């Protein structure tokens, strides 16, 4: 049972007519350019001002229309898929929702299900529920029940004069629907007439629709072109943003370039030589741990026998940090351990650009771009208002 889901063509046409309507409303209403007339009136030579401004407005329209059409194309497939999924779900829910054992209120006979469909249980706010219609095979009375087993009670129409329940009769002519409300208690009577909806000539409409579609909806070739161009534009914009950020952090990036980035073997040499001056010897590197960062555990011996544990740890830490300062390596924050003159700790390397930015900015605090401060004394941003008051921009 597919009461809601329709052929894909239906959704495609629906989407395209929305696109057409939006395009017409937003971009091609050049007669509605009242603001242009206002602008044109400011010029002495109205003719050339009108030419110039209209040309300008046309261009803005064309550019806007180009992007709008492209964007509609981009979202088309996904939107149609969502619409169809929604209707498919409604159908599935309708099919899978059932009531059981509904009996006639008058003769207690098991009733037959005549129909079930979505019904607006409430209009404001809209609340839908599945309504089941049952009929009694024996006494022909009927019942209407919502999916939550609530009985549907049709609203009574009351007489505005005496509050008596009105008699409602419907009548249809070729071009009108006539409803008569008549009170049996007083003289109240009201006749409501509604013009019947006349279906327009669908074929002519569809031809016009196809014409409009050609003008306002991109076909697959144009659409794919738009999508690939806008992807290119997006990546260019990203590059540009990245360059701008780099420019802002120029000092940081220059510093990264300057940093010494020793290989593990060279690092060992560098530390070994530097630390020997302070009587730390036999530097040994363990197997490097390779994860997101490379970390290396090291051991080294204090050859100055009179030095205290506190001094040895302190001096070693300071010296390692001094040697590593202009490199991409750090002494890890778990610090230095000490046992019987053997000291150990861990080193870590920064390799990726974003990690190096973080490292350099942390280590050389003065390189970071300063937040722009707004100087409240800046006189050039204060203008005089119409009544002579100061307006700060
Ligand atoms: Zn019955
Ligand atoms: Zn009445």
Verbal overview:
This protein has 393 residues and is an alpha+beta fold. Among the domains are: 8-96, no CATH class; 124-195, no CATH class; 261-351, Threonyl-tRNA Synthetase, Chain A, domain 2 (2-Layer Sandwich). It contains 9 helices and 14 strands. It has helices spanning 8-27, 34-40, 46-96, 202-216, 220-248, 250-258, 264-276, 309-324, 353-363; strands spanning 112-122, 127-135, 142-146, 167-172, 176-182, 189-195, 280-285, 289-290, 294-302, 329-331, 337-339, 342-349, 382-384, 390-392. Strands 7, 8, 9, 10, 11 and 12 form a 6-stranded antiparallel beta sheet that branches. Strands 1-2-3 form a 3-stranded antiparallel beta sheet, with no helix packed on it. It has a 3-stranded antiparallel beta sheet with strand order 4-5-6, with no helix packed on it. A hairpin with a 2-residue loop joins strand 11 (337-339) and strand 12. Helix 1 packs antiparallel against helix 3 and helix 2 packs antiparallel against helix 3 (46-96). The radius of gyration is 40 Å and the shape is elongated. The structure holds zinc ion (ZN) (2 copies). One zinc ion binds at residues 159, 161-162, 164, 183, 185-186, 188. One zinc ion (ZN) binds at residues 159, 161-162, 164, 183, 185-186, 188.
How much is the average pLDDT? 86
Largest sheet: 6 strands, antiparallel
Low-confidence stretches: none
Share of β-strand residues: 15-25%
CATH classification class of the domain at 261-351: Alpha Beta
Distance between the termini: 64 Å
Please estimate the helix content. 40-55%
Derived structural class: alpha+beta
Order of helices and strands: HHHEEEEEEHHHHEEEHEEEHEE
Per CATH, which architecture of the domain at 261-351?
Answer: 2-Layer Sandwich
């Amino acid at each position: 049972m597919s009461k809601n889901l329709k052929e894909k063509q239906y959704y495609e046409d629906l989407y395209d007519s929305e696109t057409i309507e939006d395009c017409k409303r937003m971009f091609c209403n050049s007669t509605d350019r009242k603001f242009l007339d206002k602008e044109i009136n400011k010029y002495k030579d109205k003719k050339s001002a009108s030419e110039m401004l209209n040309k300008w407005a046309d261009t803005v329209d064309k550019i806007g229309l180009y992007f709008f059409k492209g964007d509609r194309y981009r979202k088309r497939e996904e939107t149609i898929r969502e619409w169809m999924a929604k209707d498919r779900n409604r159908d599935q829910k309708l099919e899978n929702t059932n009531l059981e054992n509904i009996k006639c209120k008058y003769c207690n006979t098991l009733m037959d299900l005549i129909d079930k469909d979505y019904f607006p249980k409430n209009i404001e706010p809209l609340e839908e529920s599945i309504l089941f219609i049952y009929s009694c095979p024996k006494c022909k009375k009927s019942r209407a029940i919502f999916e939550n087993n609530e009985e549907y009670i049709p609203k009574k129409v009351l007489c505005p004069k005496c509050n008596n329940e009105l008699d409602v009769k419907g009548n249809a002519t070729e071009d009108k629907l006539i409803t008569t409300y008549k009170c049996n208690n007083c003289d109240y009577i009201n006749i409501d007439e509604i013009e019947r909806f006349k279906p327009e000539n669908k074929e002519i409409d569809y031809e016009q629709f196809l014409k409009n579609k050609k003008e306002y909806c991109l076909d697959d070739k144009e659409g794919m072109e738009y999508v690939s161009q806008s992807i290119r534009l997006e990546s260019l914009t990203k590059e540009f943003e990245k360059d701008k950020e780099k420019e802002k952090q120029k000092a940081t990036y220059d510093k990264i370039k300057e940093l010494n980035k020793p290989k593990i073997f060279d690092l060992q040499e560098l530390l070994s030589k530097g630390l020997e001056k302070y009587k730390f010897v036999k530097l040994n590197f363990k197997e490097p741990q390779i994860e997101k960062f490379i970390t290396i555990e090291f051991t080294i011996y204090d050859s100055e026998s009179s030095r205290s544990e506190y001094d040895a740890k302190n001096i070693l830490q300071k010296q390692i940090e001094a040697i590593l300062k202009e490199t991409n390596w750090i002494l890890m924050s778990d610090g230095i351990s000490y046992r019987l003159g053997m000291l150990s700790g861990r080193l870590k390397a920064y390799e990726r650009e974003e990690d190096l930015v973080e490292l350099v900015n942390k280590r050389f605090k003065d390189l970071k771009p300063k937040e722009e401060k707004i100087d409240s004394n800046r006189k050039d941003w204060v203008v005089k208002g119409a009544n002579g008051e100061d307006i700060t921009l």
